[in-house]
Each structure stands twice: as structure tokens, then as C-alpha cells.
Design brief:
Elements: H1 3-25, E1 47-53, H2 58-68, E2 72-78, H3 83-93, E3 99-103, H4 107-112, H5 125-128, H6 134-140, E4 150-162, H7 163-168, H8 177-190, E5 197-198, H9 204-213, E6 219-222, E7 225-228, H10 233-247, E8 251-252, H11 260-268, E9 273-277, H12 280-287, E10 295-298, E11 312-320, H13 327-339, H14 341-349, H15 377-386, H16 398-413, H17 419-436, E12 441-443
Parallel strand pairs: 1-2, 1-3, 5-8, 7-12
Antiparallel strand pairs: 3-11, 4-9, 4-10, 4-11, 6-7
Length: 446
């Protein structure tokens, strides 16, 4: 058995066991909401579906689907606020929708609740596999051929940089992480008020994405248990790298993502680069208009330029909940969103890179925003997405993960400890939480 198959089979074993334990220990869990594929035949006559989603393009996408599918009608509810909590509450109450938009990182949490339908037997699902970027398919599949959603969108990372400031100091766009650090030192020497990037308590998810780029496995399913290792192997290389940038005062440690302080720094040039997803492009244009024409986009710096590796920060899948009475039609809707050109164009328009391979060749991907120097920035993001590692997995308690990692970063920035030491404490908290949910988990090195 190859390593990839072994890992995903172990994912199923661990989560299935955890779900069983959770169901036995809580009257709210629904053991009947099984994840077995079973039969998935289309219904006779017109079908009504409920869909809980979020994001600007969602209503337009639903409207177009309804127009082109007279035998299926989708009614959408916007769950932009606390979507995970709303869907979790609905699962426990037995009022879950047919289809829900769930971030890739939250899929295992819903699997733990036994709340998702395996749609691998539904018509058309198998055909979708070859139409989407490989890593997105890996995010929605588990062992034994189980499929628990269809990719909706992605957030590949790239390097946003102030080309005017790099030019001012004669600095080249960094190609490696060593280059990136060297540029930070030269910037700091030239202008003490300038920061290479920001690294604050809100950057936990981004740190995981950068571990992903380096081939780290902070969450490893094997031998019927889940190992949480935030500081070992290739994760350690990433952690120690950012520790150096903190120690050398090259990064802004009080600037939080998506705040007025960040927008101001984007605008006035005190923040010289951003390690951001594709969706950040729209945020920048709306909130830092004074910097129009000064920012550009380049590939992420690499650890090994002979093996280009991308990273992802965000993105969601459309999942069919186990309680749906019309899984075939629900799966048809989810598959259509993943591959239909109209749906993909709507996603591109708001800064999402589509999961569909064909959509990466749409004319909309050739747009050259004036804000970014009239360059085709979407090509950079699509290239990043094509090289994202397919074997990265998420744990079934991401809220605890991000909270614990954020606390670790906060403690580190106070200056009396290290990021590595604090992340080791964080992983113990994460493991304790997993065990409380019935998952056989352990910290790295044990």
C-alpha cells in the first residue's frame, strides 16, 4: 500500500472511531447520519434543495443553476456570520440544509459529527475528479474512495510587494526564503520604520499554510491515531525562520490582518510585502486605494527553487449533509458549481481562484488590474495552486488549533519565550482537546 493511500485510509479509521465515540457520548450526535455512500439515485419529478452558503457570488451562482436546471430548485440562506457554528447547531438539531459551504479546514470537524454524506456513488461525482486541481480533490476525499464535498474555491498564496520601494533601494524580488530575509535586513537598515511583513497573533492560519508549502505534516494520520506536530521536521524549519525575523525586528508584530492598521501600512509603504491569498487583491484595492499602481504580485519565495511549491490560505467545498433526502441532486448542484464556467467566472470576479482546471484558462484569468501595475496577476495565483501539495490534512478541531496557535504567537511576541516552545505547549492543548472528543491523538515526539 502506498504512503498516500495508507494515510487517507487512516484518516477514515480515526475519524470514524471518533464519530462513533462522540455519538455514544452525546444525545445531540446523530449516529444515523452515516457517511456510507449507499445508493444515490435521482428522484422522480422536481426537487427542492436548501443551500447554506456565503460570499458575494453565491446568490448569482444559485440563480443561474436554477435557471438551467428546471427539475431542481435551490433556495439559499446566507450564513456569512459564524457559518460553522450555524451548521453545527443545525446538525445537532436535525435541521441541516441539503448542501452547505464549508471551508476545507473545517471538513474533518463535520466528519467527526458524522454529518456529511459520502457522495462518491452519486451520478457525475467521479467525473468531477479529473476536472479539478488535484489538491482540491484531496481535500474533499477520505479513504476507500469516500467523497465528502465538491471544491468550491481556493485561496493560493503569492507574494504581494511594493515595487516602488524595492526599486528605491535597488532590491530584487526574492526568489527564495533566504532572499526574503536578506531583503528584510536591507530594508530595515535603509528605513527603520519599514517592515518586511507582519507576524501577529492573527497569523496562525497563515503559518500553517507556510508549513504546508514546505511539505510539513503538522497533522498526521497513521496507525489509527492522529499526531499533532507543530515544531518537528519541516515545520521546525518554518517556525525557526519566522523566529529569526521576529528577533531581527524585520516584521510588524502589532499589525493584525484585515484591520485599519494593516490597510494604513499597505497604503503608506511601512508594510513592504504581504504573503497573501488571491482574495487579498480585492481587499487591498478597496482599503488601500492610495497605493494603486505601486503593488505587484510574484510567486511565493521557495525553500528549493528546483521543486516549486505553492500554498493555500482559505477556500471552501460544497458538502452534502447526511440528512439530505436528495443526495443525488445535491451532489449535482455541488459538482456543477465546481466545474461550470459561469460559476467559476463569478468566483474569479471576487478574487477567488477556481478549482476547475479548465477555468484556469478562461479569459477572465488574463485580466490585468491597474492597481497591480496592469499585470496578469491571476497567472501567478493559478501557478501557485497547481503546485500545492496534495497530502496535507486538517484535524477535526480547527477552532482549538487556531486559538491555541494564536495564544502561542502572542506569548512569543512578549519576548520572554520562543515560538517553538510556545507551539509545543499549543500542540499539547490541541491533543488534550482531541482526546476529549474521542480521537486517539498524541503530540509529536511521543
Amino acid at each position: 500500500m502506498n504512503r498516500r493511500l495508507s494515510l487517507i485510509t487512516s484518516v477514515t479509521s480515526v475519524l470514524a472511531l471518533a464519530a462513533s465515540l462522540a455519538a455514544c457520548g452525546s444525545k445531540d450526535a446523530s449516529p444515523a447520519a452515516g457517511s456510507s455512500a449507499g445508493s444515490c439515485a435521482r428522484a422522480q419529478g422536481k426537487v427542492e434543495l436548501t443551500y447554506w452558503g456565503f460570499g458575494l457570488p453565491a446568490p448569482k451562482i444559485v440563480q443561474e443553476f436554477n435557471r438551467t436546471h428546471p427539475n431542481i430548485h435551490v433556495t439559499m440562506k446566507d450564513v456569512s456570520t459564524n457559518s460553522v457554528q450555524q451548521m453545527t447547531n443545525a446538525l445537532k438539531a436535525g435541521t441541516a440544509p441539503d448542501v452547505g459551504m464549508v471551508q476545507y479546514s473545517d471538513l474533518p470537524s463535520f466528519r467527526l459529527l458524522n454529518g456529511l454524506r459520502d457522495i462518491s456513488a452519486c451520478p457525475g461525482v467521479a467525473d468531477t475528479r479529473g476536472q479539478v486541481i488535484p489538491w482540491t480533490w484531496a481535500q474533499v476525499t477520505f479513504g476507500g474512495g469516500g467523497v465528502y464535498g465538491m471544491p468550491q474555491d481556493t485561496g493560493p498564496l503569492a507574494l504581494y510587494y511594493r515595487k516602488d520601494i524595492l526599486a528605491k533601494y535597488g532590491l530584487a524580488v526574492p526568489k527564495t526564503w533566504a532572499d526574503y530575509e536578506a531583503i528584510g535586513k536591507r530594508l530595515k537598515a535603509a528605513d527603520p520604520s519599514a517592515h518586511l511583513a507582519h507576524f501577529a497573533s492573527g497569523d496562525a492560519y497563515r503559518l500553517l499554510s507556510l508549513m504546508w508549502q514546505n511539505g510539513a505534516r503538522p497533522f498526521q494520520y497513521a496507525d489509527n491515531h492522529l499526531t499533532v506536530d507543530l515544531t518537528g521536521g519541516k515545520a521546525r524549519q518554518v517556525v525557526e525562520y519566522w523566529q529569526r525575523l521576529i528577533d531581527e525586528h524585520l516584521v510588524a508584530t502589532t499589525v493584525q490582518e484585515l484591520t485599519p492598521a494593516e490597510f494604513k501600512a499597505m497604503d503608506n509603504g511601512t508594510l513592504v510585502t504581504m504573503l497573501g491569498a488571491s482574495w487579498l487583491s480585492g481587499v487591498m484595492q478597496a482599503n488601500a486605494p492610495g497605493a494603486s499602481g505601486k503593488w505587484a504580485v510574484a510567486p511565493l519565495p521557495q525553500w528549493d527553487t528546483s521543486k516549486p511549491a505553492g500554498a493555500n490560505y482559505g477556500g471552501s467545498a460544497n458538502t452534502v449533509f447526511a440528512s439530505s433526502k436528495h443526495p443525488a441532486e445535491a451532489a449535482e448542484f455541488a459538482s456543477w458549481v465546481a466545474t461550470n464556467s459561469y460559476a467559476q467566472k463569478q468566483l474569479i470576479a471576487v478574487g477567488s481562484v477556481p478549482p476547475s482546471v479548465a477555468a484556469l484558462g478562461l479569459p477572465e484569468m488574463d485580466v490585468k488590474p491597474a492597481y497591480f501595475g496592469a499585470e496578469p496577476i491571476w497567472h501567478v495565483f493559478s501557478d501557485s495552486s497547481k503546485t500545492v501539495d496534495t497530502s496535507f490534512q486538517w484535524p477535526p478541531n480547527m477552532t482549538t488549533v487556531t486559538n491555541s496557535m494564536s495564544d502561542a504567537i502572542t506569548s512569543t511576541l512578549k519576548g520572554s519565550t520562543t515560538l517553538s516552545a510556545e507551539l509545543e505547549r499549543a500542540q499539547q492543548k490541541i491533543v488534550t482537546d482531541l482526546k476529549s472528543r474521542g480521537v486517539d491523538a498524541r503530540a509529536g515526539g511521543q
